[in-house]
User: Fold these one by one.
Assistant:
Number 1:
Amino acid sequence: MNTDKTSVVVVPCSGIGKPFGTVSREAAYELCDELRPGSTRLVALAKLVLGDAEARELLARHPAVTIDGCKQMCASKMVQQSGGTVAHEVAVLDVFRRHKDLKPEGIAELNEAGLKLARVLAEEVAESLAGGEQPEKGANHV
């Protein structure tokens, strides 16, 4: 019996060294660990780049939400190249344009504005996910 209740795989940007990439990852953690822990599963972009079998299998069984930090849209492109379906594509820059007062700074640790931007982005994605249950919090990362 399959007990996997994942309904959406979340793939964030891996823009290491860039504030918008860090916002992408923080938003994904917020979404998967806090807002929709029972219906989402985080998959690191690097796993797809390396062809990880478990990550590819998750994408084969579940639609993906991608959160990209720049216009290159690497997360979206890699999900598609890995055989997955992008159900919802989010660009951090688009969310920032609507919330210019939340300018992210920092890389290893975001400033308060960057953390708030990540939260706003995560909340927007959570709202777009239909009827996700919210059971106990827990790490659900691949």
Number 2:
Amino acid sequence: MVKQRILTAVLHEEEGIYVAECPEVGTFSQGTTLEEAVNNLKEATELYLEEFPMEKEIRSIITTFEVAPVAEV
């Protein structure tokens, strides 16, 4: 039995759609809702992993950082 993996979805809104990325695998997808974007990312990632299986568990580390203020346009 193959163990299910828990992967990360990073999302942002871009021109009225949600863009989703899986940093562990490098797959991207999009959707008009957050749920659709994540579902599309899951499908894209599963299809990718069928062709290019992960050899080992990769755990992303997610953090935040500050940048200096810049002039807004």
